[in-house]
Amino acid sequence: MTVPEEAAGERIDRFLGGSATAFSRTRVQRWLEEGLVLVAGRRVKASHRLLGGETVEMAVPEPKPTELAPHPLPLDVLFEDGDIVVVNKPPGLVVHPGAGSEEVTLVHALLAHCADLRGVGDCLRPGIVHRLDRDTSGVIVVAKHDRAHHALVEQFSQRQVRKEYLALVWGTPAPPSGTIAGPIGRHPVHRQKMAVVTRGGREAFTHYEVRAAGTDISELLCRPTTGRTHQIRVHLAHIGHPVWGDPVYGTGHRASHRLPIKPSRQMLHALRLELRHPATGELLAFTAPVPQDVADARQALGL
């Protein structure tokens, strides 16, 4: 293709990962690293700035069919059409496998549910555009083809998706509503954990609102505008109100013995997801019903 004059000054990865192609910026960056993209006949880095008028050649590799075997599981499908499938993920289910993992995941179940998911995006994460932690329940959207995948990835990266989470936390934040702003990166000592860091982190913002305040546990509605790993859990722990039942960021509370029940997992639920349909542009909103364990906990705690 020939770079239009109005694209002068734009990064090559942004140009190819935008309206110029149907591919995500992440995939374009990977192809740039592999030397599959040439600008004016030479290899360039993802940060290369275009001049306008150059010729760009891109050798798009054939999609790698996933080697994952479909595994039927009962799925709570909230919405499905030819472009996307929206699922209410139960707690305890990992979204996608890691390299070398043989654990059955949501991806395995989705491959059994819709066979055309193969080859969409990453070979280990076909169709996946965002994640929920293993023990976080709730709404998750999956793309069923590359065009939908690209459009959804763009919405998430441009922070155009509205996400709402229900969280039961220790104590009651003051003020009762606000925004937690703190860059998130690897914990400087415990590398398997994330933390709010002073250097090397990525900006992160979580808005919260107290919906019900209890003696020891309160209910919050959280709206993250960024999507960092463990973001809500890390941010709430950072302000001294970790998610109840969180085995990584919420341990060591002396009031545990006073509570009428013990949580079986972290009390965090992806309640609502609002986005634009990747094909029609229609604004859609999906709500995942509050799971029984969270509802039972709220009742026992009087929330």
Notes on the structure:
Strands 4, 5, 6, 7, 8, 11, 12, 13 and 14 form a nine-stranded mixed beta sheet that branches. Strands 2-1-3 form a three-stranded antiparallel beta sheet. Helix content is 17%, strand content 25%. It is globular. It is built from six helices and 14 strands. The chain folds into three domains: 5-58, Structural Genomics Hypothetical 15.5 Kd Protein In mrcA-pckA Intergenic Region, Chain A; 77-151, Pseudouridine synthase; 162-301, Pseudouridine synthase. The longest helix is centred in the middle third of the chain and has 12 residues, at 146-157. It has 303 residues and is an alpha+beta fold. The relative contact order is 0.13. The model has no long low-confidence stretch (mean pLDDT 89).
What is the number of beta strands?
14
**Unreliable parts:** none
Number of structural domains: 3
Query: Strand percentage, roughly?
Result: 25-35%
Helix content: 10-25%
3D shape = globular
Put simply, the count of helices is 6
Q: What is the N-to-C succession of helices and strands? A: HHEEEEEHEHEEEEEEHEEH
**Biggest sheet statistics:** 9 strands, mixed
Mean pLDDT: 89
Q: Which CATH first-tier class of the largest domain would you pick?
A: Alpha Beta
Give the full name of the CATH homologous superfamily of the largest domain.
Pseudouridine synthase
Task: Kindly report how far apart the N and C termini lie.
Answer: 59 Å
Provide the CATH architecture of the largest domain: 2-Layer Sandwich
What is the alpha-carbon Rg in Å? 21 Å
